[in-house]
Recover the amino acids of this structure.
């Protein structure tokens, strides 16, 4: 115990001795990272951390962050939320009140981002969750933003894509009526499609219930209705069954899905039947071009694997924070005023060129951005096909 | 018109699964007067055993150790899985039902539910929550007959299941064991006194029912190649409905009721919005039962005051 105390005192002494040296330069800008480094989803935490550290390298290489003509050093405060809601709140509070961060990136999953967002909003600290898709994360919270699109958004995006790509006017929908995500998305798609092609253009709107395995009567009806494309926002296990049965019933037209298709399991279960089909998602590694490809290659070289959507969205989110700080123009040194300034600047960001698409924030702090359409290649890989905007 | 015939084909395939599982229910019910609620899960276990056997055979063939054509792999998979699954059925009977044979009926009924849960969660513990893909044994070929699409799989499923139903019918009607089973279903108090071994017959009934469930599981895996540990629950319930609708112990009844169930489900979805499918389908069946409480081929007075 005595030894511990000695070390502690020593540390404090060193800290006191060193700190005036730091003070001499511009006060560092601190950005908080709230990520699940341990817990159920450590891979998500790792992607977050790696992307943030890669960004910090760039800033350091540039000699600091340029705000209103002055170069500020930047520090990252990385806190582990253990993929738990209470730890995320604790980490949030610590970063805001003790570390005095100017803005926070994370938490990633909605489970932590919803309670975390409440803390950030109460302390009037700007927060951006790169990955959380639940509407509640940003709802009625002026200080909370997100880097990805919301679930309902994919309906209109896919309707636009199908219209432009295939020039179809008749679509059918098959969805699980007992599950929130597919049900919501099916409705949004129908609204968007009928807006584009007029009433009655959704020729069949068929449903089933979770655990059903036979879709033959729904699919027969869909084929009979003369639909030119089938939209099915289902999860991978159902996708495999639906696609295969549709083909066995003589369906030869495209089948289109949403980001729930994005699991590697889809192709494993579905096999050749799924080759050549399309779905919408946040980001696709294969076939990426431009800045997205640069990011993927750099990340892959540095960490040895292709980054997933979390890393890409984190990269965009932290660069949005950077842009907001720079747009702020001048930092006063009063952390409260600076946070307000960063928040206002972030809300005004227009047409931000991210690697996951161009973003403009709405009133709610949700970005209007483009989705990526992925085509399942003849080798069963998810290939970037095109970017589609609402 | 093609629309109608297409749905007839769909219903034939769907109904054959109900029919085959209903047979297992019906046999156990007629002989032991109890509902084996674990039957849907035995169907699930049979499908998983089928995946295992098929995977081994496909791997052996592709590695060149033995060379088997696709149809032979299928036949072997069905036979080996039937053999293995029948032991699962006998085991369930031995540990779950035989000790409770003189217990109140309700206890025997919940035994089935408990064994079902044990099989589901046991499978979950062993195989994990990821879905299992049934290995593609036979290449799917689609035939277009005047606008009606039929695959070789669908024909095969219907033919194989009808074959097994016919074989079972012959067994029960023509053999000595079959006669013992029929006698037992007529009166299971007096018949054992005549020297018919109760335990053997009971075990045999479970074995046959389970073997049929495993055939259904394999055919199901071929038609719908995504398997999960809970696939048998709702399916089991519906097949149970078919078993009762067919009439106690009637093989013909269970078969017909199974197909009827398939037809009702498919055709209700054809006419009405698919969201209302089960609601309307099972209301129709409830109505049928109101007018025919003993099912199609049930004998009103055979129950011998056992309950």
């Amino acid at each position: 115990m005595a030894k511990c105390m000695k070390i502690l005192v020593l540390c404090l002494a060193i800290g006191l001795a060193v700190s005036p040296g730091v003070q001499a330069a511009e006060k560092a800008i601190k950005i908080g990272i709230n990520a699940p480094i341990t817990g159920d989803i450590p891979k998500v935490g790792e992607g977050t951390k790696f992307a943030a550290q890669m960004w910090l390298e760039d800033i350091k290489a540039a000699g600091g962050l340029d705000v209103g003509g002055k170069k500020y050093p930047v520090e990252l405060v990385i806190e582990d939320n253990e993929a738990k809601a209470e730890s995320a709140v604790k980490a949030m509070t610590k970063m805001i009140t003790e570390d005095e961060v100017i803005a926070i990136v994370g938490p990633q999953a909605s489970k932590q981002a919803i309670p975390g967002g409440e803390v950030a909003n109460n302390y009037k600290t700007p927060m951006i969750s790169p990955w959380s898709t639940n509407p509640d994360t940003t709802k009625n919270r002026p200080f909370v933003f997100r880097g990805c699109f919301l679930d309902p958004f994919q309906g209109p995006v896919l309707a636009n894509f199908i219209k432009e790509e295939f020039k179809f006017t008749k679509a059918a929908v098959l969805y699980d009526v007992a599950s929130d995500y597919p049900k919501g998305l099916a409705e949004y798609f129908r609204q968007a499609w009928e807006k584009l092609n007029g009433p009655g253009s959704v020729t069949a709107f068929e449903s089933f219930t979770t655990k059903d395995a036979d879709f033959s009567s729904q699919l027969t009806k869909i084929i009979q209705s003369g639909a030119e494309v089938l939209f099915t926002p289902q999860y991978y296990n159902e996708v495999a069954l639906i696609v295969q049965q549709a083909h066995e019933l003589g369906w030869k037209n495209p089948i289109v899905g949403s980001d729930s298709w994005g699991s590697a399991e889809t192709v494993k279960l579905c096999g050749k039947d799924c080759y050549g089909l399309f779905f919408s998602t946040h980001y696709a590694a294969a076939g990426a071009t431009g800045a997205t490809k640069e990011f993927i290659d750099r990340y892959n070289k540095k960490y040895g694997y292709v980054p997933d959507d979390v890393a890409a969205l984190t990269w965009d989110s932290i660069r949005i924070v950077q842009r907001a700080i720079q747009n702020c123009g001048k930092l006063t040194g009063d952390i409260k005023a600076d946070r307000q300034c960063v928040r206002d600047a972030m809300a005004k960001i227009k047409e931000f060129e991210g690697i996951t698409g161009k973003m403009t924030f709405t009133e709610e702090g949700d970005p209007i951005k483009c989705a990526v359409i992925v085509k399942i290649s003849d080798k069963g890989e998810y290939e970037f096909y095109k970017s589609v905007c609402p | 018109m093609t629309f109608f015939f297409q749905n007839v084909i769909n219903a034939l395939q769907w109904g054959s699964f109900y029919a085959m599982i209903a047979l297992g229910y019906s046999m156990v019910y007629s002989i032991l007067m109890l509902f084996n609620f674990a039957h849907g899960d035995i169907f699930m276990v049979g499908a998983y055993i089928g995946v295992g056997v098929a995977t081994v055979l496909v791997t052996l063939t592709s590695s060149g150790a033995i060379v088997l054509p696709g149809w032979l792999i299928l036949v072997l998979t069905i036979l080996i899985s039937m053999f293995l699954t029948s032991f699962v059925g006998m085991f369930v009977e031995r540990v779950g039902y035989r000790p409770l044979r003189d217990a109140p009926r309700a206890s025997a009924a919940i035994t089935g539910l408990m064994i079902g849960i044990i099989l589901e969660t046991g499978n979950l513990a062993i195989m994990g929550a990821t879905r299992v893909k049934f290995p593609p044994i036979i290449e799917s070929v689609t035939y277009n007959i005047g606008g009606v699409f039929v695959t070789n799989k669908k024909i095969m499923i219907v033919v194989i299941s009808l074959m097994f139903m016919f074989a079972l019918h012959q067994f029960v009607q023509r053999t000595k064991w079959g006669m013992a089973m029929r006698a037992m279903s007529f009166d299971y108090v007096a018949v054992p006194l005549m020297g018919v071994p109760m335990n053997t017959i009971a075990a045999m009934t479970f074995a046959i029912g389970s073997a049929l469930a495993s055939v259904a599981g394999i055919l199901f895996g071929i038609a719908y190649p995504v398997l999960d540990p809970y696939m048998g629950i709702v399916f089991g319930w519906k097949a149970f409905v078919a078993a009762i609708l067919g009439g106690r112990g009637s093989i013909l009844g269970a078969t017909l009721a199974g197909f009827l169930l398939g037809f009702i489900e498919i055709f209700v979805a054809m006419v009405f919005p698919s969201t209302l499918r089960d609601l309307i389908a099972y209301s129709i069946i409830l109505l049928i039962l109101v007018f025919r409480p003993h099912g199609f081929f049930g004998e009103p007075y055979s129950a011998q005051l056992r309950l």
About this structure: The first strand of chain A starts at residue 29 and ends at 35. Confidence is low (pLDDT under 50) at residues 18-24 of chain A.
